[in-house]
Structures are given as structure tokens and as C-alpha cells.
């Protein structure tokens, strides 16, 4: 799977994919993530990508032109299955959505900043709008990182048997059980007997 991410703060998206399971996915060649700085498509030499909103109101809006040019240029290289806008008023992310997206080949994620992106871009280019929860973040970057992680770990071959996504919480609509490791007795608080019985099924 290949994921392109469009952002005005690429620095926020360096570390999340350089460690642990996302790193392994990329090292194995199962996932590629490319972060693109929207300023590359700025409307002037000052790097402008946002402007005041019509009708008044505080906060800037990300302009049509840089976003449209970026999406069109990137779309020439990749045939995107979905162009996803991360936004608090999108569809709330859950395991089912992550499962569905993990079956795709190419995704483009757009991170909003300031007051968000011009509505016309949403209407014209965005095929899916996703929220990671009912709260407002400063931008879509951390939400994109969450989404990439939720999808990336589902790609076949990324997880081994021990960490299999099939035993994750929510994967079968059940929460995973509590887990324990050594020692058996931590300051008088013991691991439940059933886990010590040697009967895995139980
Ligand atoms: N951008 C700002 N807040 C967000 C949220 N909760 N989910 C996705 N993108 C966002």
C-alpha cells in the first residue's frame, strides 16, 4: 500500500512512521508513506496557502488553488482509491473503516489546518472524510498518523503471529481481555489462577 499525506506541518509526521510496527511495515516493503509539504504548491513566493474567510469570522481557510494543484499533480502519479480529508466533522473512525481502507492500494490523506479547507475542495476532490473522535485537534496531522497506524498494522505480513491483528480489541467486536506478565505476584496482587492453569482455551 502507498499513502501520500498532504500537510502544512510535515514535521509533525516524521516520527510516527519511523518506529515500531510502522517502521517494520515499511522495512518489509509492505507500506510506503510519503509526506508532501503543501507549501510546494503555494500561490506566491511567500508560501501562502491560506487566506481570510468570506463572510468574516476568525481563522484562516486553506485555499483552493494550492490544494487543487497538489491533488491533481499527485493524482497523475497515483490512481488514488480514496482521497481522505481528516476533519472533526467526518465519519468517526472505527475498526471497520480501518479494515476497509487496509484493502486499498493508494490513499491520499489531506490534513486541514487553521479553520480547515475551502468547501469547494471537499466537494470536488475529497472522497472520504474521517474524524478520529469528537474533539478538535489543531490540525489533521495527528489524526492522519492515527489513521495510517490503524490501517498499516492490518496489511498482510506486517504483524507476526504473536501480535496478530486478529486478536486486537474491536477486531471481533469484543474488547481484548486483560493481560498479565511476570511476576505472578506483584506486591500481593496475583495473576488470576485461570491464566496459571495451563489451559489455554479456558
Ligand atoms: N482535525 C482536527 N480535529 C480532528 C479530528 N478530531 N479528527 C480528524 N481530523 C481532525
TrEMBL record:
Listed PANTHER family: TRNA (GUANINE-N(1)-)-METHYLTRANSFERASE
Protein's cellular compartments: Cytoplasm
Pfam families on file: tRNA_m1G_MT
Record carries keyword Cytoplasm: yes
Keyword Ribosomal protein: no
Transmembrane segments: none
GO biological process, one term: methylation
Function: Specifically methylates guanosine-37 in various tRNAs.
Quaternary structure and interacting proteins, as annotated: Homodimer.
Protein's name in the database: tRNA (guanine-N(1)-)-methyltransferase
Catalyzed reactions: guanosine(37) in tRNA + S-adenosyl-L-methionine = N(1)-methylguanosine(37) in tRNA + S-adenosyl-L-homocysteine + H(+)
Family: Belongs to the RNA methyltransferase TrmD family.
InterPro entries found in the cross-reference section: Alpha/beta_knot_MTases, tRNA_m1G_MeTrfase_C_sf, tRNA_m1G_MeTrfase_TrmD, tRNA_m1G_MTases_N, tRNA_MeTrfase_TRMD/TRM10
UniProt binding sites for S-adenosyl-L-methionine: 112, 132-137
Keyword annotations: Cytoplasm, Methyltransferase, S-adenosyl-L-methionine, Transferase, tRNA processing
Annotated EC: 2.1.1.228
GO molecular-function term, one example from the UniProt record: tRNA (guanine(37)-N1)-methyltransferase activity
Enzyme class: transferase
Organism: Niabella ginsengisoli
tRNA methyltransferase TRMD/TRM10-type domain segment(s): 1-202
